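Recall from the previous lesson that a structure prediction takes nothing but the amino acid sequence as input. Here we apply that procedure to Probable transcriptional regulatory protein A374_04129 from Fictibacillus macauensis ZFHKF-1. The sequence below is the only information supplied.
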Amino acid sequence: MGRKWNNIKEKKASKDANTSRVYAKFGREIYVAAKQGEPDPESNQALKVVLERAKTYSVPKHIIDRAIEKAKGGSDETYDELRYEGFGPSGAMIIVDALTNNVNRTAADVRAAFTKNGGNMGVSGSVAYMFDSVAVFGIEGRSEDDVLELLMEAEVDVKDVQAEDEQVIVYAEPDQYHAVQEAFKQAGITEFTIAELTMLAQNDVQLDADAMGTFEKLIDAIEDVEDVQQVYHNVDMGE
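The prediction returns the following tokens.
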């Protein structure tokens, strides 16, 4: 189905390397999800998805509780959800999702990250059409056949099931996220290595050493922007 998770695993690894930044981003995302509906994951599906993701990143309970309590407390802090699209070296395509309480600041910071590091911003739609929105789950301790069988028995429609990096990865349409999760739950599987609603590129590009160096600096600069939550790209990072 195009790009596999093992080609973008460095995204999670790089975030894990800077836990304070990870926790701050999740705190903001949890707060926004809790404010947009009930601050209870059982009745707020968006919040439930964010909390499942936070679990795979080992976000501490006190970070999660603080964000939810802030939402319960009636904070009037508001955030806009923004998406930027742009290009890096040698055909690299990049999507940037942000949450911000200052649109002008974030736009300027993201544009500066692109232009100062070998990239350039595109217009809305210039990149996103080359990506698919996908629900991705990763589990350990089960075979590919076992996972496929339990999903079939639960009559859950998925796009692909693949063994990757000593785990089994399930790809599904975004609207099947909760159905896949529930099928696993019914089979006694409640721990995931991956639980994401993400964007996967339809095709990868490979960069030479010089272009890769430029690209990595560009991605680092974008991820360093305080309001940036997620960065997606189509570059094959290798093993």
